[in-house]
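[Q] Does anyone have a clean structure-token version of this?
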Amino acid sequence: MNATENKDVSLAPLSPLPRLLLAYAPPDLRAWHQLCWLLDQRLAAVVKRGGDPTIAAIRLAWWDAVLVEQDAGKGGGEPLVEQWRAIAPEGSGARAERLIDGWRMLASPDPMGADELAAYAAARGGGLFSLIAAGSEQDEAVERAGRQWALWDLAGHVRDRALAGLALEVARAQGPGAAPSDAALKPLRLAQAVARPDIVAGNVPVGGFSLRHYGRLLLASIRG
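[A] Here you go.
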């Protein structure tokens, strides 16, 4: 995969944790990692707009058409899409479909219980982390890390504290398991290390990434 960075895709929209994690990505894969995180945030923006769920569904369907169905008639001139078409490895469409489905679950007006949260985590978190780790042979570790990170991230951004607490419960029920050990997967390992203490303690990360989490990231990076 030729992952030469496209300067038209800016780092500016990335939230703090993904920006920091990029520093630990292999140089030849950094553009791909960046693109995956940016895609996740673009999909998040669709859902966060709120309003009529039908509008969100239409916007998510557009991403399906471009990334999954590979409709060449759409997305031309969109920097993220152009870079995707330039560097996405084989099989990325199926992984992107899972990621989109995860956000589609959050766009639904239906209430979320433990089963729905587990499905969301498998789709968004598992889809995103497997997308970043394209070609890795550590599927189960990558999937678990993704699920737990997605539930932790959700807990830190929803206004419903009961739902946030339930998300952490669902993450905790999955157990620690083995973290992704491949050197190329260090950013995913670090993301899990940042989230895991909150999951174990049941501490809702109000406001998302904080100085406390930054300290965890630095310590985990030193440990490898």
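[Q] Thanks! Anything notable?
[A] The chain has one domain: 16-223.
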